[in-house]
Write a structure and sequence with these properties.
By secondary structure, the protein is an alpha/beta fold. It has 12 helices and 8 strands. Helix 2 packs across helix 4 (about 80-90). About 45% of the residues are buried. Strands 1-2-3-4-5-6-7-8 form an 8-stranded parallel barrel, surrounded by 9 helices.
Length: about 270
């Protein structure tokens, strides 16, 4: 069974929700990034979204844009991101989702990326600028490799399109909590709850909410609404703002424990 499916099955049986953590591959450098990822997995992360650094991340806000710039300056690339995933897989069984824009994958070669991602132990791909109407070639390349193609739904996505997004996808559906780019703050919990209930009624896959989740209170409020929450900018900001010589894995681990505690407290029977 795919590690993503197995994780959501185990969490549901335990009445717990998934904490999905986005971190940019190679931020601030390869070795530190690997240490951060390993510590994150040991601190309560259920699924890792490993962001491939890209020069034009149109979906991402300034925090993740800056992380991509740092990683690119440190020499990161798609091939090195796959090496990072493989190194992480050597020591953890946490599901790994490769988070990318389509341009790097297309340039690399879809058959090549599918083969190398499978060899690295990747469990899913999330390609933020690839609509389902254009996803056939990548889906074909991934066929038979136990790598889920994960899709996103926006707050403005119509019910008929939610069904279309779910058809042919797998793993989980990434439900964007608000319009705009990635970043923290500005959540309307009532509106998120309304849309999440609609999406869950239409989607056969687990649904995870992302964008704007910053603190344990956000995690506490949102975890009961879906099957998991996704946190990115709040973690990446810690890396950007840490003073020189700071314990970056420790800082990220502390934030993950805060989020995990908020989630678990909200889901107690």
């Amino acid at each position: 069974m795919n590690r993503i499916d197995l994780t959501f099955t185990k969490l549901a049986a335990a009445n717990r929700k998934a904490l999905v953590a986005y971190l940019t591959a190679g931020d601030p450098d390869f070795d530190t990034s690997l240490a951060i990822l390993r510590t994150a997995c040991a601190s309560g992360v259920d699924v890792v979204e490993l962001g491939v650094p890209f020069s034009d991340p149109t979906c991402d806000g300034p925090v993740i844009q800056a992380a991509s710039e740092r990683a690119l300056r440190a020499g990161m690339s798609l091939s090195r991101s796959l090496r990072l995933a493989a190194a992480l897989r050597e020591t953890v069984e946490t599901p790994i989702v490769l988070f990318s824009y389509y341009n790097p994958l297309f340039k690399y070669g879809l058959a090549r990326i599918a083969e190398e991602a499978a060899s690295a132990g990747v469990d899913g791909m999330l390609v933020v600028d690839l609509p389902p109407e254009e996803a056939g070639p990548l889906a074909d390349a991934l066929a038979g490799r136990s790598i889920h193609l994960i899709r996103l739904a926006a707050p403005t996505t119509r019910p008929d399109r939610i069904r279309m997004l779910a058809d042919g996808a797998g793993g989980f559906l990434y439900l964007i909590s608000r319009t705009g780019v990635t970043g923290t703050g500005g959540l309307d919990y009532d509106e998120v709850a309304r849309h999440a209930a609609l999406v869950k009624s239409l989607c056969p896959h687990p649904v995870c909410i992302g964008f704007g989740i910053s603190h344990g209170n956000d995690a506490h409020a949102l975890a009961p609404l879906a099957d998991g929450i996704i946190v990115g900018s709040a973690l990446v900001r810690l890396i950007a703002e840490a003073p020189a010589g700071a314990d970056l894995p420790g800082l990220v681990a502390a934030k993950i424990r805060e989020l995990r505690d908020g989630m678990d407290a909200s889901c107690v029977s």
